[in-house]
Amino acid sequence: MRTPARYPAPRYTDHEDLRLTRIIKRSTKARRGGVNVVGFPFDGAVLGRRGAAGGPTAIREAMSAFSNYNVELGVSLKGAHVFDLGDLVVDQSNTIASHMRIESEVAEDIDPESLLLVLGGDNSVSLPCIRAASKGLGELGLVVIDSHLDLRGEIDGKPTSGSSYGLAVKTLKGLDPHRVVEVGMHGFLNSKDYYEKAKRLGITVVTAREVWEKGPEAVAQLAYAKASRGAEAVYLSVDLDAVDLAYVSGVSAPSAGGISADQLFRMVYEISRKDKVKCADVVELAPLLDPSGRSARVAAAAVTYIIAGYVARSSQAARN
Ligand SMILES: [Mn+2]
Known about the structure:
Helix content is 36%, strand content 18%. It has helices spanning 20-23, 55-63, 95-109, 126-137, 164-171, 192-201, 208-214, 216-228, 261-272, 294-319; strands at residues 2-3, 25-26, 35-40, 69-70, 75-76, 82-88, 115-120, 140-145, 180-185, 204-207, 233-239, 277-283. The strands form two sheets. Strands 1, 2, 3, 6, 7, 8, 9, 10, 11 and 12 form a ten-stranded mixed beta sheet that branches. It has a two-stranded antiparallel sheet with strand order 4-5.
């Protein structure tokens, strides 16, 4: 069961300034050939501070601040096919059952002809989403943007917000670790053991410093090239705690020394422009920990850049 998406009504009407939230249509079913948005308001498996259950609502609210055009990219979202399926009803006290519901929801919503855009929820929701994408779309590649490797095993027999990518690689035959790229590691936030595990498995790790040195576009190209080689589909997973706490502090684990908000936007846009990207998530926004609403703005912008990337694909195709 899902509850319908709610967007605040615009405070004014200006026919020369169509607001983004007017472009997004509600739908009870995923539509082919567009972006389908779905929220998973679950934070029952977070290792740190809770609050991400409020993420989908806060992201939609923050999206109401946006218009329809990006001057820097030259991308217009007028006429974009964006459908919001609403939020899945989940049980915060039962991780396994909630993950199963999320997995079947994603299985129903994904389609090789469209992009499914997931609003989290804690980072644990990425696991059932990746699982459904792997089963439904075939050989999968994975690009992660995060401060953490999240390669843990289960704790007390259950997945957590720190285990999504580890358990995905361990349990999914269709996810070759050589097609997994994790971008944004920095600081004293990961153990040497998990870093060595990543190397041993064949996962590519790109540090935050490399994003600063090579530039976000170059890193995005490299990450997509690795993730898409031999894959039928690519999944993009964005944990907002990759972004420095100067921009994003409303998350379970804010990080000092992370990438900038602009670097995140550039990377997600660049990756979402690629044809094989069929599913993306943006997780960990916790509005209760975000009194200024600043982190929600960054999350909403990241979501909008992903939509813009998808829209840019079809205009690219039209030019060819
Ligand atoms: Mn993280």
